[in-house]
Automatic annotation (TrEMBL), chain B:
Membrane topology: Multi-pass membrane protein
Species whose genome carries this gene: Aliidiomarina taiwanensis
Family membership noted in the UniProt record: Belongs to the sodium:solute symporter (SSF) (TC 2.A.21) family.
GO MF, any single term: symporter activity
Primary location recorded for the protein, binned into one broad class: membrane
Alphabetical list of PROSITE patterns matching this protein: NA_SOLUT_SYMP_3
Name the record gives this protein: Sodium:proline symporter
GO cellular component, one term: plasma membrane
Length: 43, 548
């Protein structure tokens, strides 16, 4: 396997984790707005 | 190696637990109710559910073990730890939807088993959960002690005590709600640390050039993605173990009962991706250490991550790693406390002591006292450094033995209490015989266990297929896999005792449960009565809660 693909193999995981991070942060904002609107707690 | 001063370590730990405690004040209620204390509102949103599921599934050992696997098995090592762990989260959600459909108001899986079969099956699940969660607490507190011991002048016991008191302080009052709420922040700390630390260490070690100069440090097997040793010694046993953990452990079931029903699938898919990326990513640190020719301190692979961090990261980055590991172990420990409290509240106080007529206020305090007791036990066991590996093996075996009977009981109306309990007990005993080689694994005995293990492997693949593609696919894929595997497993698996024993638990329980079920003459079970029985247990609560 080439150096390029091995590098991608190591660095792809933090990249995916960044995607999860963004997804959760956006979802949290949406959930907080919904909770505020309905007057209910997030949990 | 870099170390914090005592003051710095204390400031970081107190800041972490102090901030977490302050966060929980935002959701605290003067009077918590019993249901919220165990499963929140049952309609927790996507962000909190996905984050909590991920944070709970990642414990301190996830980092150490993934890195160890990467170091030991090379290119495929981290995958054989992180990918299978991640897939098990995915595997659970189809079954989770079934659990929720059958009993929307349940608090524990054992409670559903009580409604389906009665006390014996309930106590098997609840008992194994209590022992499993106390062990998990101990392991997490031990990890805190070891980390503090390595990275600061504070002692191991001081680290254990700070973690124990810290976790209890923010979980005690609001229970599961605190656990879920704080999991979000703890997960974000873990993600940020992983995203920053992995590339930094990679480039500090030379970046892509590391592969050009470091591949000579790998054996041919370590340099292969298809290493049979990695599969047989790490991937397969771990795959089988986490499947049992996913079904048997209350921390997972609790989140299934807490998330809004239509969000089970997206939450669990996100948790799968989140867990996989963080754990496999940190497992890559083990591979990088192997490529760079790093020798773990004292030959202990658990030292790899702290060692890599202390050697290649700036002090600020070491703080980040420190917080990440403390966050991971705390999020699992608070989940264990919440799981234990809900089991004792529901399955012991609610079902066995109050006979379905619990006093809600007493129930909440039973949960809180359970947390105090469990934390004390966890701290004592961790401080004494007790060797309880054998207990962990037994709990794992029991969970392996219950996977098929639990799932079959909730889909197949003819499964009886006798089939459930007998299959679990027989499978557990056969596991013990295989795991501890009480009979010599040669000749006919070895073939007998290899046949059971092959059935077990077919059951695992069949159940996974069944969850996603339905009964027919599950039966066909499981059977085909079993037939295919039998050409290789007979005469071979006896050399891999851990895998053989784990698969035996699955195979024996599935075989006995199926045999006793198809020969039973009892009438089929009405699944709708599960919901009626679980609801009946809560019927007392709304009336009394108004008086709170």
């Amino acid at each position: 396997m080439s150096t390029f693909w091995l590098t991608a193999y190591v660095l792809i995981w933090p990249l995916i984790a960044s995607g999860v991070f963004l997804t959760l942060c956006v979802a949290l904002i949406i959930d907080m707005r919904a909770a505020k609107k309905s007057g209910k707690s997030l949990v | 190696m870099f170390q914090f001063s005592t003051t710095s370590a204390m400031i970081i730990l107190f800041a972490f637990y102090g901030l977490t405690f302050l966060l929980t004040l935002r959701i605290g209620r003067r009077q918590e109710n019993a249901d919220s204390y165990m499963v929140s509102s049952g309609s927790v949103g996507f962000s909190m559910s996905a984050a909590s599921m991920t944070a709970t599934w990642i414990w301190a050992a996830s980092f150490y073990a993934a890195a160890s696997s990467g170091y030991k098995y090379g290119l495929s090592g981290a995958i054989h730890y992180g990918l299978w762990g991640a897939l098990m989260i995915l595997f659970i959600y189809p079954f989770g939807r079934r659990f929720r459909k059958l009993a929307p108001d349940a608090h524990t899986l054992a409670e559903i088993m009580h409604a389906r079969h009665g006390s014996a099956s309930q106590l098997m699940l609840a008992g194994s959960n209590v022992v499993g969660s106390v062990i998990s607490l101990m392991v997490n507190f031990t990890a805190a002690g070891a980390l503090v011991d390595i990275l600061s002048p504070l002692s191991f016991v001081q680290g254990v005590l700070i973690a124990g008191v810290g976790v209890l302080s923010y979980t005690f009052w609001s229970g599961f709600r605190s656990s879920v709420f704080t999991d979000f922040g703890q997960l974000i700390a873990m993600v940020v640390a992983a995203v920053i630390i992995i590339p930094i260490i990679f480039f500090k070690l030379g970046g892509p050039e590391l592969f050009e100069v470091g591949m000579v440090n790998l054996t041919p097997e370590q340099a292969s993605f298809y290493s049979p040793t990695a599969i047989l010694e790490q991937g397969a046993p771990f795959f089988v173990a986490v499947l049992a953990y996913a079904i048997g452990n209350q921390t997972i079931a609790q989140r299934l009962f807490a998330v809004r029903e239509d969000l089970i699938k997206p939450s669990f898919i996100t948790a799968t991706i989140g867990y996989g990326s963080i754990v496999i990513g940190l497992g890559m640190l083990g591979l990088l250490a192997l490529l760079a020719g790093v020798e773990p301190i004292n030959g202990d692979l658990n030292n790899l991550i702290p060692q890599m961090a202390a050697t290649y990261l700036s002090p600020i980055m070491v703080v980040l790693l420190f917080v990440m590991i403390i966050g991971s172990l705390s999020s699992t420990a608070d989940s264990d406390l919440s799981a234990l409290s809900s089991i004792v509240m529901t399955d012991i106080y609610g079902k066995q002591i109050s006979k379905n007529k619990p006093n809600p206020t007493t129930m909440v305090w039973v949960g809180r006292m359970t947390m105090v007791t469990a934390t004390t036990l966890g701290v004592i066991f961790a401080s004494l450094k007790l060797d309880i590996l054998s207990m962990l093996i037994f709990v794992g075996a029991l969970w392996g033995a219950i996977v098929f009977p639990v799932i079959a009981s909730l889909y197949w109306s003819r499964v009886t209490n006798l089939a459930f309990t007998s299959s679990v007990i027989i499978a557990f005993l056969l596991f013990v015989v295989a795991r501890f080689e009480l009979l010599a694994m040669t000749g006919v005995v070895a073939v007998f266990f290899e046949i059971l293990a092959t059935i077990g492997a077919a059951v695992v693949i069949g159940l996974m297929s069944f969850g996603f593609f339905g009964r027919r696919a599950g039966l066909v894929i499981g059977a085909l896999f079993g037939i295919f595997l039998s050409f290789y497993s007979i005469g071979f698996l006896r050399d891999y005792i851990v895998l053989l024993a784990s698969l035996t638990a699955y195979g024996a329980s599935a075989f006995v449960c199926t045999l006793l079920t198809i020969t039973s003459k009892k009438p089929p079970f009405e699944f709708k009565t599960i919901d009626e029985r679980v609801v009946e247990f809560h019927a007392e609560q709304p009336q009394t809660m108004e008086n709170l």
